[in-house]
Design brief:
The protein has 315 residues and is an alpha+beta fold. It has a single domain, classed as DD-peptidase/beta-lactamase superfamily (Beta-lactamase, 3-Layer(aba) Sandwich), CATH 3.40.710.10. Helices cover 39% and strands 20% of the residues. It has helices at 3-35, 95-106, 117-120, 136-146, 149-163, 167-177, 204-217, 219-224, 293-310; strands at 68-73, 78-83, 89-90, 112-114, 133-135, 184-185, 200-202, 229-233, 239-243, 255-263, 267-275, 281-289. The strands form four sheets. The chain has a five-stranded antiparallel β-sheet with strand order 2-1-12-11-10, sandwiched between helices. A three-stranded antiparallel β-sheet has the order 3-7-6. The chain has a two-stranded antiparallel ribbon with strand order 4-5. Strand 10 and strand 11 form a beta hairpin. Helix 2 (95-106) packs across helix 6 (167-177).
Length: 315
């Protein structure tokens, strides 16, 4: 091979080498274009928001003298506040709520109820003479408003007679119908039977549901207990006006039911049902407070309940 041929071979070799380099470079550029994004990826950073502080409970640190208490939403069936709410304690005259509920579940509101001799002899508060007759609804309104023992005794006597049962059986049947597991009564008035035995026992939880049921069952009867006094006329034409045993009825907005109770065994008891909205009753029950403190306890829980629904820690 002469020098000319060698020169041509060298040129061809150099050309092929340069072409190979160019091909490798082009391949690299293509790979870079295909697999590497032209614009940098921006990582989205979600800003961290501090959790909003919770509103303090309106029921926090409420000083109550009552041994047991509850604030119960009768619509949602929610317990908003509870203190020993399932404890079975003496009911005193709160037993009369069960008596009236049992009667109205069995008898017409117009059923005539006559005051018996035994009922007329019960200890005060009482207002009637033996032989006087009232429509059940009228007698119930007087009895619950003024916590009349003679009226309660006459009501449960008539109810038990209609059912052909004993009085405590009639009361037990009404408690069972509402699934009141802690409620038991031996008389219709709630008067202590002995120094050690109360006329009725129940829990704050049971009484809240009972009060709510009575408001739904007999709103006209319940409404009488929200007035400072109540009036009714016997079948014989005798007019009766009795005062409410609860002095705070005018201070509670939209009150639907009020009932007091007091005996040596029970101390001071109180039930309130009031509306926090249209058709939204809330029941408050206090058991085992003192004769005076039941009202201050009740005022504190009413205020806390209103604050709760207003979304503020206190009013």
């Amino acid at each position: 091979m002469d020098s000319a041929d060698l020169q041509k071979l060298a040129q061809r070799t150099r050309f092929m080498r340069e072409a190979g380099y160019a091909l490798i470079f082009a391949s690299a550029l293509l790979a870079l274009f295909l697999f590497v994004p032209l614009t940098p990826k921006v990582t989205q950073v979600t800003p961290q928001t501090a959790p909003a502080p919770e509103t303090p409970s309106a029921f926090a640190d409420i000083p109550l003298e009552a041994q047991a208490a509850i604030v119960y939403d009768t619509v949602t069936k929610e317990t908003l506040y509870a203190k020993n709410a399932d404890a079975q304690l003496p009911l005193a005259s709160l037993t009369k709520l069960l008596t009236v509920y049992a009667a109205l579940a069995e008898l017409s509101p117009h059923t005539p109820i006559t005051i018996s001799a035994d009922a007329a002899l019960l200890e005060a508060p009482r207002a009637f003479n033996a032989g006087q007759t009232f429509a059940l609804a009228d007698l119930a309104r007087l009895t619950l408003t003024a916590s009349l023992n003679d009226g309660a005794a006459a009501i449960i006597e008539a109810t038990a007679a209609r059912q052909n049962r004993s009085q405590n059986e009639a009361l037990a049947s009404a408690a069972a119908a509402l699934n009141l597991l802690q409620t038991y009564a031996v008389n219709g008035s709630g008067l202590d039977v002995t120094q050690a035995i109360s006329g009725g026992y129940g829990s704050a939880f049971d009484l809240a549901r009972l009060a709510g049921a009575l408001v739904a069952q007999a709103p006209d009867v319940a409404d009488a207990t929200t007035q400072s006094s109540t009036h009714a006329v016997s079948a014989g034409g005798t007019s009766f006006r009795v005062k409410n045993t609860n002095p705070m009825v005018r201070s509670i907005p939209h009150l639907l039911l009020s009932k007091t109770g007091y005996t040596d065994l029970a101390d001071g008891n109180l039930v309130l049902v009031f509306d926090v909205g249209i058709g939204h009753p809330i029941a408050i029950v206090l058991l085992g407070s003192s004769q005076k403190a039941r009202f201050t306890d009740g005022t504190a829980l009413v205020a806390a309940t209103l604050a709760h629904f207003a979304g503020v820690p206190s009013l």
